[in-house]
């Protein structure tokens, strides 16, 4: 026991020789060091944010979209997703009313903390087709979009609804629904228009299943003048 006690004392004496450099700093030096640390942390956060924005694939026209320009419901939704919410939102309105602008503003806001991606359903289908004859499979593309932490699906209803594509559309929307993944849609069609579009594939039951899940989203009407025509 004495040997053990002596060993512990020697260790304590050795540790006593090590001084915390921070303790030797003056108040001004400490303040400067803390300021440097804060700046480095802010730069790191900024780099991460820019990486997430690059990953998001926001179209060039909407890269400066600001949440402050959005409807109140859209602003609240963006903050809810940022805070960990898993809700869905469906922006509905005629062409040129700013639906895509608002969706991209939400995506830019969410990118402060989490990864997200902008896409169209037709774009996803095209990615699946492009895997034919390549190592990556349509299944892996599907899984990737199902698992995205946040997803904006723009212009729902513009994709080709076929016997081949409808099961993929259903799988992606159902997969995100079951996994409670926050998702935002834009469309210029009402519920009847979307259903009529989807049933062109000839599969009414699956079309109903897609629509029933989409319509669980909070629906927000985006109105006003056609911005594209207003700006020439």
State the gist of this model.
The chain is 54% helix and 9% strand.
Explain the overall architecture.
The protein has 232 residues and is of the alpha/beta class. It folds into two domains: 21-56; 58-230, 3-Layer(aba) Sandwich (Rossmann fold). Helix content is 54%, strand content 9%. The chain has ten helices and five strands, in the order αααβαβααβαβααβα. The chain has helices spanning 2-16, 27-56, 72-82, 99-110, 121-130, 138-147, 165-178, 191-198, 204-214, 227-230, and strands at residues 88-92, 117-120, 151-154, 183-187, 218-221. A five-stranded parallel sheet has the order 2-3-4-1-5. α6 (138-147) runs parallel beside α7, α7 (165-178) packs parallel to α9 and α8 runs antiparallel to α9. The chain is elongated, with a radius of gyration of 26 Å. The mean pLDDT is 89. Residues 89-231 form the IstB-like ATP-binding domain. This is IstB-like ATP-binding domain-containing protein. It comes from Xiamenia xianingshaonis. InterPro entries: IstB_ATP-bd, P-loop_NTPase.
Overall geometric form: elongated
Individual helix count = 10
- Return the average pLDDT rounded to an integer: 89
The CATH superfamily of the largest domain bears the name P-loop containing nucleotide triphosphate hydrolases
CATH architecture tag of the largest domain: 3-Layer(aba) Sandwich
Please report the total strand number as a whole number. Answer: 5
Rg over CA atoms: 26 Å
Main β-sheet: number of strands, strand sense, barrel status? Answer: 5 strands, parallel
Helical content band: 40-55%
Following the backbone from N to C, one meets helices and strands in this order, namely HHHEHEHHEHEHHEH
The CATH class assignment of the largest domain is Alpha Beta
Strand content: 5-15%
- The secondary structure category is alpha/beta
How many structural domains does the protein architecture include?
2
Arrangement of strands in the largest sheet: 2-3-4-1-5
